[in-house]
Amino acid sequence: MRFSASVRSALFAGVAGVALPVSAFAQDAPASPPESGQENSEAPPPVSTGATIVVTATKREMTLQEAPVSVSVTSGETLERAEIRDLIDLQTVAPSLRVSQLQSSANTTFIIRGFGNGANNAGIEPSVGVFIDGVFRSRSAGQIADIANVSRVEVLRGPQSTLFGKNASAGVISVVTRAPQFDFGGSVSATYGNFDQIVLKGDITGPISDSIAFSLDGNLNKRDGYVDVVNLDEKINERDRYSVRGQLLFENGGPLRIRAIGDYSQIDELCCFAGNVVAGPTVPLLFAVGGEIDPENLFSDRTYLNTLPVNEIESYGGSLQADLELGALTLTSITAYRELRSLSRQDVDFSSADVVSEMRDQAYDTFTQELRIASDFDGPVNFLLGGFYFNEQVEQHSGLANGPDARPFFDLLAGGGTPGTLGFVENQLGFAQGSIFAEGPSTREYFTLDNEAYSVFGTVDFEPFDGLTLTAGFNYTKDKKDFTLEQDSFDPLANVNLVDVVIVGQIANALGVPPGSVDGATIAAFRQDNPAAFEAIAAGATDPATNPLLALQPLQFLPPFLNVPNAVEPGRTRDDDFSYTLRAAFDVTDRLNAYVTYATGFKASSVNLSRDSRPLPADYTPGPYGSTILAPSSPIRDAGLGVANLTTGTRFAGPEEAEVYEVGLKGDFPGLQFNMALFDQTLEGFQSNVFTGTGFALANAGEQSTRGFEFDSVIQPADPLVFTFALTYLDPKYDSFPNSTLGDLSGMRPAGIPEWTIATSATYTHEFGMSGNALIGRLDYYHESNTQITDGLTGFDSNETGIAMARLFRREVNQVNASLTLALDMGLEISGFVRNLTNDRYMTQIFDGVAQAGTVSGYPNQPRTYGGTVRFKF
């Protein structure tokens, strides 16, 4: 894509200014553009006052002013100045991006323009694609480690399937790191902060020969936890992670350039704290069995647990990128293989009572291959054509375990505070005494997913005259998933249906035979021979007044599981889609650019790899109270596959299909740059993933839309002073969502999406004469308007009550960050920083208490952190 020469030489657009430091305003544009997809081979410049920024948002080198897409850019220097260490903190400088971390270090969800999901369910691909040096990172656990030597982070908003081969229905986060340099150099830094935070970083780069350069970098991040586990005299929500990376670059001035990267990162942290928000009716029972919690005191940063939350993550792999110039054509190949291992253990009753704990052990092996060819003709037509292949194998071993306090707790729950009910039930049903909620494994799961996908994508740019570029892009994707789900439920009460057990007992009594001899054929014969008697037995079994066992049904929250594949459910999805982009970009004046875009996007089906995975309603219809005997005809029942207490839900959710209309305007005037985008974005079949207290309900919303606008600006009233201001307005709506876990949400505003988001900063650089020394002060502010946190809660008597309770909990964010840096000409920098200066506290998410109806738990944000950094660059 080409714009007029005057605009091509202009300064960057304001869309990136929100995230760019002062140095971005003075760096001259490189004399010649870097190689495709790579960084300029010269070392980063010292702090100064102005620049043309080159980005690869469209898979071509362009200035931000030229790029006709809604993209924000955060430079590596801004990450340093703002003490942003990983992608979780990136949202404070990129207002259309929201990042949330939930029950473990491995569960981080990225959301752009209100769309995003998937971190806490291994079968769901994220709607926001994350690429690091052109390599797709499919899972958040492989994305959140501290990233060293970052050149820039580009956040592309809206569907990007025609530029990135992998599914990216909501947007893309593209992290670009510095390539090895042929000039020797590097840096070392040490940070010390509150909570005894220690961060060590180092990198070195230089030539091995005239044509081969190398780089090595590593970092260590350790910090004590800020949440006291009172009864264990320990702290959680700590930091304990490190990473190392090595690179080789072959470049001899000829047509071939090769970059090889290998990396390893490890996280071993006690995370994450969930506190009590609503102390429901079961809390006194926890106290009765000797447990403790800090009720309804989320921001005390105090908790009681019987075991510490363990998170162990290993992420490693390598990539090879080769760029070959063939005249006006450039051929690029990116090959990558990665492995990710994630183990978590957690006390999920969040109390000092040893009731229930969870273990989750996940493994991901991923291979990707991208191949593309791009033209650089002098004529009016240029193109990019690519292919992408993705292959991933997922395994998950998981399960729940009962502790020694499980039986006393649930016995009190069953008896309304009086013990002895479970023993009576065991006697009546013939179970061994002490078997219900016995100490030991409660469930055991084994899930696998094999995902293979390929796509062909490309764009064509046509410039009929100078200043106008017409673009058409396409993506054809074919995706197949094969999955298996196996589960054992060991609790004897969960393995009987409380209607069926009465029916069997009554038929046995009528026939004068032991209940164990009453099988399906016996029931069918009795029903046919004695229809009136059977109907009377069935009526009594389904009436709580005559069947007191039905009161125990809430204790059957971990019923047996129908394994997949089976004779009815093949355990696979097959999807294909054609997406496209149409865009017109033109120069209104030398200083004003505009573009109009219509684009579609796609994300393939996702699989519910959780213990709440259930057959689709079309495959099974349960009887009253989950009865199998009284269940009407359905494929699963007729095949003889029904298991006790089987209900319906989803095994998988169908594809997401995105559509966006967008109009953008970019201006560049002396002392002022701005970027504005107005958009109307819709996702049909948005894959909603809702925690139910024991697993996840995965369902397609019929349609979810978001209208809004994004405005970013940079104001430079004087050379040393730079202000940035970014504003995002979002107006989301469930246009159609009749089958949600909470009932019909059609017409409602989705929770968790703030109406207004602001990110603004001021940076002042005081230079000490001509010495090259400077004092750099930075102050930034991030705001999210008051918004409801979640759509509803499932642990209440009705959907209406759960929705009403959820309306009580809202979040507003007002975070102030600051830093002051003394940068000396000889390469030494000394800085102090503070994040969340005002110690603004809020809930990031709330959820139903596990096996505790009426109890609500939540995750708080991080308190104020501060410290100092010494850095030396050479």
Strand content: over 45%
How does the helix and strand content classify structurally?
mainly beta
* Record field, number of beta strands: 41
Quaternary structure = single chain
Question: How far apart are the termini?
Answer: 38 Å
Please state the second-level CATH architecture of the domain at 5-177: Beta Complex
Label the overall shape: globular
The gyration radius over C-alpha positions equals 29 Å
CATH C-level category of the domain at 5-177: Mainly Beta
Report the biggest beta sheet as strand number plus sense, adding barrel if it closes.
22 strands, antiparallel, barrel
- Supply the number of helical segments: 11
The low-confidence runs, each spanning 5 or more residues with pLDDT under 50, are 1-51
CATH fold-level topology of the domain at 5-177 = Ferric Hydroxamate Uptake Protein, Chain A, domain 1
CATH H-level superfamily title of the domain at 5-177:
TonB-dependent receptor, plug domain
Detailed description of the structure:
With 874 residues, this protein is mainly beta. Among the domains are: 173 residues, TonB-dependent receptor, plug domain (Ferric Hydroxamate Uptake Protein, Chain A, domain 1); 50 residues, no CATH class. The chain is built from eleven helices and 41 strands. The strands form eight sheets. It has a 22-stranded antiparallel barrel. Strands 3-8-9-6-7 form a five-stranded mixed sheet. Helix 7 packs across helix 9 and helix 8 crosses helix 9. The longest helix has 12 residues. It is globular, with a radius of gyration of 29 Å. It starts with a helix and ends with a strand.
